[in-house]
Design brief:
This protein is α+β, with helices and mostly antiparallel strands. The chain has one domain (about 1-105). The protein has two helices and six strands. It has helices at about 1-10, 95-105; strands at about 25-30, 35-45, 55-60, 65-70, 80-85, 85-90. It has a six-stranded antiparallel β-sheet, with no helix packed on it. The radius of gyration is 17 Å and the shape is globular. Mean pLDDT is about 85; it is low at about 110-115.
Length: about 120
Amino acid sequence: MEQMVAELKKILPFKSTTVEGDTVVIASKNPEMLVYGRVGSIERDTTRKDEWWHVTLHLLSIPMQTVVWTLRTPQFSGEIFTMGGEGRFIQAVSFDEDANKAKTPGPPQSKKESKPHPSGLRIVK
């Protein structure tokens, strides 16, 4: 799980906090999955003494699914944690254009190469 998260952090611009409406990456070891999700709501779990939150996640999978997980703030902001003994990771993705340019892997392109696609990919013919 640690290796997968390290690789994700090399290629995706993550935010340090997660708020309602954010797009997040959700990784799970078992069941094995790597999906995007949208944070629907974050509501305080008043039944617990410490700060725990009911986080509603709309998984952007086929079919789309909605789950509510009870998590601490670090658990939905990039800390690797376990549920049922299996590794999990959730962190919001930044759509800030300047941050995305800084994270684009690879050397700068010369004028002879094709123009980069907005996603950071380039077309090779």
